[in-house]
Amino acid sequence: MTDVLRRGRASLAFSFFAQGAAFALLVTRIPAIQDRYGISDALLPAFLAAVPVLAGLGSVTTEHLVKRIRPSRILRWSQPVVLLALLGVGAGDQLVEVAVALGAFGLAVGGLDASMNMLGVSLQRSYGRSIMLGFHAAYSLGGIVGASLAWAGAHWHLSLFVSYLPVVLVLLPLCLVGSRWYVDGGADADGEAAEAGAGAGPLVFKLLLPLCLVMTFAYIGDSTVSNWSAKYLKDVLGSSEQTATVPYNVYMVMTLVGRAVGDFGVRRFGAVAVVRLGAVVAALGFGVVAVAPGAGVGMLGFTLLGLGLCVIVPQTFAAAGRLFPGASDTAIARLNIFNYVGFLIGSPLVGALGDAWNYRGAMLVPMVLVLATLGYARSFEPQPDRYGDVHERPRTADVGRGSNGV
Predict the structure, then answer these.
(1) CATH class of the domain defined by 200-380
(2) How far apart are CA 348 and CA 215, in angstroms?
(3) Count of Cβ atoms closer than 10 Å to residue 117 Cβ
(4) Residue ranges of the alpha helices (H) in 201-270?
(5) What are the pLDDT digits (tens) for 13-39?
(6) Residue ranges under compositional bias (Basic and acidic residues) (predicted)?
(7) pTM for this structure?
(8) How far apart are CA 245 and CA 363, in angstroms?
(9) Which end of the chain is more exposed for a tag (fewer CB within 10 A), N or C?
(10) Which pLDDT tens digit goes with each residue over 301-330?
(11) Domain with CATH 1.20.1250.20 in the chain
């Protein structure tokens, strides 16, 4: 049983890594994508908004699919679509081609994000201790690799297709092979989720709503970094295009550091204290970015943002799993929608405020929203489970089921 869990944990961590690399390669080359396809500044926010809208649709679809299909199967086939769509972004030369590629990327990434976190929460329940931050640390590591490759592509003036092709050729077969060892949880598959959801309905969403708001605030902050950091450094702080790829890399390095030690912090001090500290540090980071006189101080702000925001999202998924142990897949799929709500609001909001006012002032809005997380920190307290205590326990059904029938 231990070997099954270890293989499942390692294969899922690699899936998070691959998604982090793919996403970083996309968002850190937004200026290059804009130039390649002649996307105007006025049209760019619409393209950026379309991806999270379609991803939200993909997450809603996943919520219904997992009633009949194991999350591991959804993850197994959505990840290759994401990688191939990334390659499609770099392969075209017409506006309609990049629109189709980004649309496929968005739909697939919704199912990918939801199913990855479903498997992560069920594995954490089986382990009986906090491990979710470790999975998201693998995502951050992938983001570092992807952002570094994007920097190299910009430095050597490589085309998007040439930058993306080697990554896809390496990650695609490895993801398919690793998917053999995914471990599904047993709660929803055993019919408990359907029973819990049928009786809860609006009550489930009411209980989940504080976590949904926290997720939205966190991803407004994250989308501000991923979609606007390169443009902010280049246009506001006067850096080169090559240097403009660095903030996201710095941000991802610090999320890796924070998440690598975050599980130990949760075990020692509890999720509530960790989330509160993360919100305060992230808000400070936005403040530094807003007043930065140059690229160096801007980097310091993005450093603090990475350390602060990195703990919030993994703990939000984990809290949803604790809150609804019999319907965790459904809860996570619904919660994951607010990931994209944050992106949908964050990217156009910062862009609109930047154009109407200025981008420095626009950075204060996500700062205030992240601080609002402090008011919902109690939602991260451990919940009594069906055993009558506040600790998650391994369940026989969870531990013994691998996606390959183990």
Answers:
(1) mainly alpha
(2) 17
(3) 31
(4) 202-231, 241-244, 246-269
(5) 999 999 999 998 998 888 889 999 999
(6) 385-398
(7) 0.84
(8) 18
(9) N
(10) 988 999 999 999 999 999 998 888 878 888
(11) 7-182, 200-380
